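seq:
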Amino acid sequence: MHHVLNQPNLLRTINGVGSNQPPAFIEEVSCCLANGYEHLDPTKSPIPRILKDMGNEDLEIVKKALKSLSGVCFDMKHEAENRLEIARGGGIFVLTNCLDKYSSDVNIQSLGFKTLQTLSIDESLDATLIEYVEKMCERMKKYTDHAELQKNACGALRNLAVNNKDRIKKNGGVERIIDAAESHPEDAKLQFAACYALCNLSAGGPYYAKTVIASGGLIVASKAAQNHVYHPQVLKAAKELQNILMQSMG
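struct:
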C-alpha cells in the first residue's frame, strides 16, 4: 500500500474494489464454473486445466480459458491462493506466451490484459509481471481504438505503478495511459482506471508528478471530471489526481 502527501491509500484493485472505495465499478468477473468448466471435479482446482487450455489451437477454447483465468484470480473466497497457484504453476509464462502468440488478435490481448490486471493485485508477483510492461505498452499503442483493451491495460498499470514507477515511465506507460484517456473520454471505467494509474505514478514524488503533468495529466483529470459529473468514482479519482499534481507544483 502506498501513502503519499495527504492522499489516502492508493489501492491495488479491480476498478475501485477496496476497503476505502465503494465498489461502484466492480467488474462482472465470472468464476471458472460459469465459463464452461462445470464438468470438472469441484473438489479439485481447475487452474491446471485452464492453463492447459490456453495452449489449445482452438481460439474459442483459448478465449474461454482466458476468461476463466481472470475469474479465478478474482474469486472473492479464494482469489489470493488462486493467484499464487497460477504463478507457481507457470501460469504467468503461459499467459504471456499466449499474448505473444496472438499479438494480432485484439480480443485475446484485451482478455489477457484483464487477467494481468487481476494478477497484479498481488504485489508479490510484481517482479514477474513487470517484465511484460514493455510489450503491453506497445500493444496499447497499436490498439488505441479498443476501449476495453485500454481499460484493462490501465488497470494493470495502476496496480503495478505502486512499486514499479521507473519501469513504467521508461517504457512509455505515462504516455500510453494519457492516450487511452484522451481516446475514450466517454468511457467512465477507463477514465477511472487511467486517473488512478496516474495517481499511483505521481505518488512517487515531484519527479514523477511533473512527468505526468508534462504529458497532459491535469488535462486528463479535468476532462474526466467534466465528462462524468454523474459518476462519483470518476470524480473522486480525477480530484485525487488533480490534488497530487497540484501539490507537486508547490
